[in-house]
Amino acid sequence: MDSSRLNEFYRDAFQELGNIGSGNAATALSQLVGRTINMSVPEVMIIPIERVPEIVGDMEETVAGIYLEVYGDVPSKILVTFPYKDLLSLTDLMLNQPVGTGSTLDELKLSALKELGTILSGAYLNAMSKFLDLRMIPSVPALAIDSFTAVLDTILAELSQENRYALMLRTEIIETETKISGSFFLIPEENALETMTAVIQKTSGVVDIG
Amino acid sequence: MGTKILIVDDASFMRMMLRNVLSSHGYEVVGEAENGRLAVKTYQEIKPEIVLIDLIMPEMGGIEAVKKIIELDRDAKIIICSAMGQQALVVEAMQAGARDFIVKPFQPSSVIEAIQKVEREEE
Amino acid sequence: MDRIKVGMADWKLARSQDILVTFGLGSCVGLGLRDEKTKTAAMAHIMLPDSKQLRFRQDTNPAKFADTALRLMLENFARLGIAKQQLQAKIVGGANMFIIAGTIAVEGNLKVGQRNVMAVKEQLEQTGIPVVGEDTGGNAGRSVEFFAESGIMRVRTALAGERDI
Predict the structure, then answer these.
(1) N or C: more exposed end of chain C, with fewer CB within 10 A?
(2) Cα(B87)–Cα(A130) distance, rounded to whole angstroms?
(3) CA A83: distance to chain centroid?
(4) Per CATH, domain C3-155 is 3.20.20.370
(5) Domains of chain A
(6) Cα–Cα distance, B55 to A144 (Å, whole number)
């Protein structure tokens, strides 16, 4: 897969897929934290894996990174990140406590963060797999609290075993009241990209993939 | 005494949420397990009246656990409690003998409704 | 004095007052080589253990893999008249970043870190270059500054501060 093959048409199609997924994910997250959640229009990137840190930003910021693998017709990786400084507010909301009452990230809160990843991914994949009529099944979540760059580094190394390019759908998650923000990345493998483009072609009646 | 319930979920956060909902509605949480293997073991030991079980868990997932529990007890009352986006797995678990399902994130009322529905089936 | 940034799957050479810098080594490995006599140093940010174990064969970036990165660095040292017998190595990174509940990891199992460290050490051993400093494994990501003049590698983690090796 070459970056030039992802023309405007597919870029738009992936963006729309991302929109469908993140809309549903925002609804699920709102229910979970009892606050209004906005999710940005997804940014679609397809770049050689080793260039990703430059594009996404060499962020030294400490984050919680929740990582899931997606099995089925669209093998992918999902990364959800929240800044370290927002984790206590976020877990306060999930545990139904007033924001600012939590002081340490205990085991229960780490578990809540992982569950947040499961619920966000589940909602995102649900909408997307319905639309594409493809199976997408998430794994159990894994959690790392570390610099954003190191979290990304690990996932990109994993991805680079079978891929040279990374297709990334990145959506910003914004909670307006407490100003918690996070990022949601869907990273399909190259063979998943082919499966998805085939479905998009079929449903849109496009013949030439140009 | 309220109906005896076993909660199975790998996330301690989710177990806590369910425990809170259940105990505030007069149900008795008699056990918790964090994977399918422990769920089967605990089921044999404590014979709960209802099992609430997640699908995607380490070691042994929910579907295999449902199959194993049904093998042990054909009348086991099992309710699936899983995140959205796992319909294919929910269908499989229902075919394996689960009675109903709840989708996370849930409203407390949907948990209680599912349990009441399964309790009524018994009568 | 320059701070020379080494990107992912990248490598750079530095002399005397220069500092080689790489950020966010998760499962990737930072390999530093240095000649004490000329105060010449090089560092690579290696992503994968072996260029020969890939599904796709057309990867043209030698700095990405343990085997090809070392070869490339040695060629460049040789061009400067520095023989491999003059070099010493330091290795950083190869963490297993993700905490997973229960005994079974995510199926992809994220063990690349461990394999990267093993591969780099194996390559060094075959070449006869001694490892004089190491900070590898564990669960924490690392950022590195490698000082060509002193040979010190300053390793920083997000939550556990910094140390020199």
Answers:
(1) N
(2) 10
(3) 15
(4) no
(5) 3-203 (3.40.1550.10)
(6) 23
Please report, for chain C, the start and end positions of each structural domain, with discontinuous segments joined by +. Answer: 3-155
**Cα-Cα end-to-end distance for chain A:** 13
Of chain A residues 168-207, which have a CB less than 8 A from chain B?
A: none
CATH, residue B89: 3.40.50.2300
Indicate yes or no: CB of A161 within 8 angstroms of CB of C102.
no
- Residue C28 is a catalytic residue: yes
The answer to whether the beta carbons of residues C152 and C163 sit under 8 Å apart is no
Phi, psi of C123, deg, nearest 5: -60, -45
Residue B69 near residue B44, CB atoms below 8 Å? no
Whether residues A144 and C99 touch (CB distance < 8 A) is answered with yes
From the list C6, C13, C21, C28, the catalytic residue is C28
Give the tens place of pLDDT for each residue, C101-127. 433 344 444 578 889 999 999 999 999
- pLDDT tens digit sequence for B2-53: 899 999 999 888 999 899 999 999 999 999 999 999 999 999 999 999 999 9
